[in-house]
Design a protein that fits this description.
Elements (H helix, E strand, L loop, with lengths): L13 H12 L4 H23 L3 H4 L6 H8 L16 E2 L18 H22 L7 H20 L2 E2 L1
Antiparallel strand pairs: 1-2
Helix pairs in contact: 1-2, 2-4, 2-6, 5-6
Length: 163
Amino acid sequence: MVGIDSFFPDIEDIPNLIEEFSKLLRWKRGNVRVLLEEIKENFILCLMVIDNDVDALKVVPKLKREEYKRLLKIGFNFDKLSRSYWRKKTIKPNEELKGSDLEFFIGKGTEYVVDNIYGKIKELMLLYEIDKENPNIQWDRRIRNLHKRILILMGHLQGYSQR
C-alpha cells in the first residue's frame, strides 16, 4: 500500500487496523459515530477482497452509502469527524505520499477525503450496475484504491495530520 505506512507506523496486520478503527469510534456519538460505523463496514468489505481473496464482484453491491447520503441532505459538516474540526486540519505532506497515487490528498481536509471515499463507492456501484461483466474493469484494483482512501482518513482522524 503506497503511502500508507507513514500514517500507521505501528500497524503491521489486519487485526491492528480493525482495533485502530475501534479506537476512532470509542468516544464518538450521534451522526459522527453512525458515519464512521458505515465507513468501518466498507473498510471491512475492502479487507475481505484484499486479505481473504473474496471476489470483488460479491463485495461491491454490499458497499454502503446510506448514512453519507442522509448526512449530505441535512448539510452535515463532515469536518466534524476530526477531533478538532474547528482548526481545519489537513493531510500532512510526507515522502511516502509524494509521487504516489495518493499525493493529491496532501493539504486536503476531512470533508474532502470523505467526499472522495464516497465518490469512489458511488462510481463502483454505478459501474457494477451498468457493466459488471466488463473484463476491462479491474475490480480488485478499484477496491484496493478505496481501501487506501479509507486508511488515509483513518490516519488523518487519528492525528497523523497537520493544521
